[in-house]
Amino acid sequence: MIPITKPFLPPLEDYNEYLQGVWQRQWLTNMGPLASDLEMKLKDHLNLKHLLFVTNGTIALQIAIKALELKDEIITTPFSFVATTSSIVWEGCTPVFVDIDENSLNIDASKIEAAITDRTTAILATHVYGNPCDVLEIEKIAAKHNLKVIYDGAHAFGVQVHGKSIFEYGDISICSLHATKLYHSTEGGLIITKDPELLKKIAFMRNFGFSGTESFAELGINGKNSEFHAAMGLANMKYIKSIHKKRRELTELYDEKLENVKAFKPKWQNGANLNYAYYPIVFESETLMLKIKENLEKQDIFTRRYFYPALSNVLPYTKSIGMPITDDISKRVLCLPLFYDLTFEEVGLISRLILRIQNN
Ligand SMILES: *Cc1c(COP(=O)(O)O)cnc(C)c1O
């Protein structure tokens, strides 16, 4: 059986070493030394000045919306994971979908202005598969219309664009460190902002709003993460380079073997590096995609329609709306297995099967 993904696990000894410290200190959560150490090491690794380690990527999004005091309409992409839209609704705001670009599969910046009304307060865009949005254009539009920008960078760990971390763009960026992501802490998320005042506010919000044992600075929630999760994050840090290398090699092999597939890969943003978080391909038709998906399953090989269906016509809490490009792409897209333990032989097998099914 070949699954679509498998979480990376560090050697158990590495994890145990961190746990011994936890047992000695008996400090399990509430921003303990491992969580602080992880924040420091990640800032260093990602070359960021500020960053906060939180419970997960979804709470990171919710805190971001709350911290920026957004109301009314937030412009967003229908081609993302449900948390992007649900966080907007959870915070009492209204998502306004803007269709995606047919090449990058990110929100189409040239269509944003037409969706802006006098109730628009922000843009929440996803760097889909880790591929940076048109951040410079979005920055310009936001400045012109006085809007805040949040980036859902759940897929974008380790991506740089125009010479700096992708997480430096927008008023706030978030990342997910969930077990299925490229780099993970079992469950976990990051909130990144360049604004020190905003960071301070978010740090209070993460911890119930406490500013002292008996005083409060903000309305808060519990967005803290534990020493056990931080330990996993720390243990995995040692392997970031080898994870990246293996995923790059697997991706390049897919590219080579699938040269004649009747599908295209999303066009990557100029000036950005790839992080090999996923292997998405968009087939020429839904029929072909389904034929391939179903026949691979017969061989115990599992792919995923990621993202399908479009968020603009599946959620019971938003009005269903047609988004021509998203509706079309989401019907044809498929992510192939890609994870650290996948072998080159397996990539060869999957690719051969895809071509055989296609040409059959
Ligand atoms: C995984 C994911 C999230 C949510 O992150 P969690 O850490 O699982 O809460 C949000 N947005 C996108 C695009 C994701 O892929």
Low-confidence parts lasting 5 or more residues at pLDDT below 50?
none
Side by side, the strands of the main sheet go: 1-9-8-5-4-2-3
CATH homolog superfamily of the largest domain: Type I PLP-dependent aspartate aminotransferase-like (Major domain)
- Profile the largest sheet: 7 strands, mixed
- Taken from the alpha-carbon principal axes, the silhouette is globular
Mind explaining what this structure looks like?
It is a single chain. The chain contains eleven helices and 14 strands. The chain is of the alpha/beta class and 360 residues long. It has two domains: 12-98 and 107-237, Aspartate Aminotransferase, domain 2 (3-Layer(aba) Sandwich), CATH 3.40.640.10; 240-359, Aspartate Aminotransferase, domain 1. It has a seven-stranded mixed beta sheet with strand order 1-9-8-5-4-2-3, sandwiched between helices. Strands 12-13-14 form a three-stranded antiparallel beta sheet. A hairpin with a 2-residue loop joins strand 6 (160-161) and strand 7. Helix 2 packs parallel to helix 7 (227-237). It is globular. The mean pLDDT is 98. Residues 56-58, 80-81, 83-84, 126, 152, 154-155, 176, 178, 189 line the site of pyridoxal-5'-phosphate (PLP).
